[in-house]
# Entry
Amino acid sequence: MHTPRLAELPPRDAPWVEIDLSRQCLVMWRGEERVGQHAISSGRAGAGQREGSGQTPLGWHYVRAAIGDGLPRGTVFRGRRPTGEIFDETLAAAHPERDWILTRILWLCGLERGINRGGDRDSQRRYIYLHGTPPGEPMGMAASHGCIRLRDDALLEVFSLAVPGTPVWVHD
# Structure
């Protein structure tokens, strides 16, 4: 896995991800060519870096790990591990308190020391992911606990392109 350097960003001929918090959308790029766009839901508490804030961190990141390849849609994750459950309305009704992490996880690691890497501003240690969410959760508005939520179809498309090492730029 190649960890991108800030001087190399955005890449000229490789995939990268742009997450625009003000528009609540994710854009997939291959160099300067837009190859996809999807609605997201970011942190209800807005943009911010600090641990425990519930905010979505800004700046350049990269995909540290891609988790869940080959598992069925709706796979439920806790602590980045599949629980053996598949999300449905019965499961949702039995556990209304859960913040559902479904289908796949793209775990982000910050690239900017003092902004999203290190200390109490570390995106990786904050467990900031792109992940699936139940179909009833809103898209296009900030409603998560800090992560980036996507619908399954969108997440699976991004997951297929954003392999570990892929740069991700989060801005507002």
Q: What stands out?
A: Strands lie at 15-20, 25-30, 33-39, 59-67, 75-78, 81-86, 101-110, 129-132, 148-150, 167-171. The mean pLDDT is 96. The two ends are 28 Å apart (CA to CA). Helices lie at 89-94, 152-161.
